[in-house]
Design goal:
The protein is an all-beta fold and 96 residues long. It is built from no helices and ten strands.
């Protein structure tokens, strides 16, 4: 099922922020599209990376784009593994 495209500055379910680098030449509503391998950081997940996406056939700069529900894996400030998902994608009119 198609889902909204994630961009830099979108949030995960735990409130962490996608920080990039993204695909700087592919913009959605003025923000770079987030891709697999982009960094995620915040209060809970300090060293996170977007690892799984369902939009594997939509590429930006040669990498699959992230979308609503993309999986983020990382480490908490206490050193424990953290898994969360991209939750807030206000780009509802850009579907992948």
């Amino acid at each position: 099922m198609p889902t909204p495209t994630a961009t830099i500055a979108n949030l995960t379910a735990t409130g962490d922020v996608i920080i990039g680098p993204g695909a700087l030449t592919t913009m959605v509503k003025g923000l770079p599209v987030a891709c697999m391998g982009d960094a995620v950081s915040g209060a809970l997940c300090i060293a996170g990376v977007i690892t799984v996406t369902t939009a594997v056939n939509k590429l930006a700069k040669g990498r699959p784009t992230a979308n609503l529900g993309s999986l983020v894996m990382g480490v908490s400030s206490l050193g424990f593994p953290v898994s969360t998902a991209v939750l807030l994608c206000p780009n509802v009119n850009v579907i992948v």
